[in-house]
């Protein structure tokens, strides 16, 4: 376990998540997700977490591993067409991870998801949290549109559009 990482997480105050993602920002993200899903029908979830707990840090849990856990906890995998995508942000590390369901993993390569993550992380380093989130939703939507998923008008919305703030 890296000492710097441990200190960064253990000293991360929950109010920093609320300051970076106030209600108005969460509403803007939900609106963007709703609009995006109308165009392609994929299911996008956005989750932000301030920091990891001591047991997770002690185990050496990476942001990617935590994103996969959250993907499962939020049932993003539980869509009829296996077309769920989780955009996960670990704020203490300003790390973004995207986890796509098996129906999309085969169609969209890892490099495309990584490009979206790096673009979001660049905005996060500038302190532009809302812009980072909206950029991520727009880019994920662009990737899903390019795969020809049926528009939402042809099916029901299976997952909530409202972003999830973990551990406040």
From TrEMBL:
InterPro entries: TPM_dom. Residues 23-141 form the TPM domain. Gene3D superfamilies: 3.10.310.50. Pfam families: TPM_phosphatase. Signal peptide: none annotated. This is TLP18.3, Psb32 and MOLO-1 founding proteins of phosphatase. It comes from Thiomonas bhubaneswarensis. The lineage of its organism: Bacteria, Pseudomonadati, Pseudomonadota, Betaproteobacteria, Burkholderiales.
């Amino acid at each position: 376990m890296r000492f710097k990482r441990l200190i960064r997480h253990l000293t991360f105050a929950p109010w920093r998540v609320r300051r970076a993602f106030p209600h108005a920002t969460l509403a803007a993200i939900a609106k963007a997700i709703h609009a995006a899903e109308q165009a392609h029908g994929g299911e996008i979830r956005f989750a932000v977490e301030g920091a990891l707990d001591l047991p997770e840090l002690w185990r050496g849990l990476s942001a990617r591993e935590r994103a996969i856990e959250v993907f499962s906890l939020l049932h993003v995998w539980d869509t009829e067409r296996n077309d769920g995508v989780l955009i996960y942000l670990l704020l203490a590390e300003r790390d973004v991870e995207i986890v796509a369901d098996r129906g999309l993993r085969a169609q969209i390569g890892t490099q495309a998801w990584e490009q979206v993550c790096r673009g979001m992380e660049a905005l996060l380093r500038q302190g532009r949290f809302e812009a980072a989130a909206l950029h991520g939703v727009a880019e994920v939507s662009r990737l899903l549109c390019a795969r020809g998923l049926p528009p939402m008008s042809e099916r029901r919305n299976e997952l909530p559009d409202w972003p999830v703030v973990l551990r406040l």
